[in-house]
């Protein structure tokens, strides 16, 4: 005879708008083997890199990819790509849509990208400290001083490095980066606060200690279900004769439909400490043995946000202005049209905004 369960508290109950997510998780759990086999059949090829590069370092967490000429003597620019479930190739997405190529073409001769690896079972206990430590090792390998460009989740890791080792960061660009996760009112903030932690833990348990990328992909698609499950197929049917449209759709699918698994410890730590409790913005997050104070970040700072970004709202990015120790005169804020991904690979933002950022990095003291 089983013991009766106590009624769920208000904090444990899932809000109605999240019921489809909870239902999807239960369905996924019951049909895990089937879904995995179906994904192997339908998944497009993994994305590639658009620009020639070499692997400078091969670490347990990442491959540090090197672009351009490392012999120029210029301070290296490191693009810290997001580690949130998709490939780092978003920084070098395609010809004409490459942040790497844009920087190289605008006077930045030496660019590197953190190509974070998909988590394996052996990586399930990796924490944020693991990634911060290896990121720091990569900076040391480059001479100990770099200019950082943090994209989305790569932004808070870059800001952590700058807070922990301020003498190693000559300038910092935060593009679509959630620094104050309590700011604004986007769906990610609501999801983090309203979905109980036990639901996130259950997903990690189903992944045997990893956060499966396919679970995250289902969650992202459920943010815009009509677009993901109906509209894009209608558009595809309407454009079957358009070779360019089909090629662009295939390129995006190769990136979007190939999600990465994440270490369970890292993922749950980010959810609980950063997105639920906002410890980094509050100056209470401990990284590599020390409390990380954003006030120690004193380097020139460029904040880039998308006006229609519902992944990282502009308020979460621009809040960094009042948290860092950088003088206000050394901070640039830029709000551009468009959504989240367009900040990194949108043709308009790459042509209109990133050349100015490249110039700003060259001139930043």
From TrEMBL:
Lineage: superkingdom: Bacteria
A Pfam family this chain is assigned to: PHB_depo_C
Database matches in InterPro entries: AB_hydrolase_fold (IPR029058), PHA/PHB_synthase (IPR051321), PHB_depo_C (IPR009656)
Residue ranges of domain PHB de-polymerase C-terminal in the record: 176-363
Stated name of the protein: PHB de-polymerase C-terminal domain-containing protein
